[in-house]
Amino acid sequence: MKEKFFALPKQKQNAIINAGYRVFSQNSYKKSPMSEIAGEAGISKSLLFHYFHNKQELYLFLWDNCAKLTIKYLTEYKCYEQTDLFEMMYRGMKAKMRIMNQYPNMGSFVIKAFYERDPEISLAIQNSYKSYKAFKSDNILASIDTTQFAEGIDVKMMYREMTLASEGYLWEMQRKGAVDVEKMEKDFTEMLNFWKKLYLRKEGEK
Amino acid sequence: MKEKFFALPKQKQNAIINAGYRVFSQNSYKKSPMSEIAGEAGISKSLLFHYFHNKQELYLFLWDNCAKLTIKYLTEYKCYEQTDLFEMMYRGMKAKMRIMNQYPNMGSFVIKAFYERDPEISLAIQNSYKSYKAFKSDNILASIDTTQFAEGIDVKMMYREMTLASEGYLWEMQRKGAVDVEKMEKDFTEMLNFWKKLYLRKEGEK
DNA sequence: ATAATACTTGACCGATTTGGTCAACGGAGG
DNA sequence: CCTCCGTTGACCAAATCGGTCAAGTATTAT
Fold this sequence. Notes:
Largest sheet of chain A: none
Shape of chain A: elongated
Oligomer: homodimer
Number of strands of chain A: 0
Order of helices and strands of chain A: HHHHHHHHHH
Distance between the termini of chain A: 65 Å
């Protein structure tokens, strides 16, 4: 029955998808009512069941959509092809913001889904997560040019620090609700500049 | 009826409290079943109702407990009486870890409670939050000695950066479940040292 | 040993919610 | 007029929820 869903105008599709992410990210799988999703998407429950056989199918579709989109945008923004660490982080952030803008609750959904214990879905989640993880290289720092940093900098700590702060920032924004991409872009650029000034080898230095 | 609860051995009290934090932090107020809390605490639902008249009373008790504990430990660790920024952050982290160790899900509970919209409780939440916020001074940096930092450092950015990274770290730990205080203490000390090396005025400098 | 007291529970109730179905409505096109 | 097709409200059986209560089981007092 899912062809019916794909035949919908993109806007309506996204309304449904976002309603799903919102509800599933705030309640456990079992306690997320289809009626609430339908209502939030502006359609009747019956119609929702017309697009997806049952709750499980909707949930797993949403889950698949996460992996697909993430991979798509990370690739599109070429953030794993960079040798400049700051450029890589900037592109990664751009990709994440791009997704957050379209699907504000996808991030929370992913985390909740990962820890979902309901036997009806947990197996599928865990399996498909493996294939996603295979995409991300485990040692991101390997391809980075480390000669650009000032002497005496613990590169690993620096990277970890920046990652944590970025995540903390994203989380703070998400929590506050309204995702304002422009502000986020500005804030993050500011942070990047702060880091560059701090970590980059000064001009004229050795 | 709450005297009955306080008469319990501390261990049993904490089992109930933690069960409450866990369930309420993972579901909305309305969809958090008393039966699940009771079961997780290792007592029967009837007994839970023997300690707390109804769900609302339990919920608001848990909420109150958050504010009380937070204020208690922040005061006890004297983290707002410091002039050294790193010492202040260290003490703040210690206080938070102290709480996380005893009530691993309190943090998530607070956030969820703050955004709870159920009319049965949201009013009480918002009101009591105001009194808590009055405790935290709004300009933490005011009492900090800024002469200790290297020249050219944007102190505000630096502080924001450190705060975000700390929060990101705490969140990561929380998400991974098992809260290992020793490891957290070690990790955070490492981060602090990294920051000190980075931000503190070098010896002999002006 | 017995009675009074406190602790704890399973069974139960009425109200509500849930996933899912289905007959029917309404509009577009032939 | 008929026939699709997107859409819906009404409906159902099953499950769940907050809360109660009588009864069971320790514990203590006498």
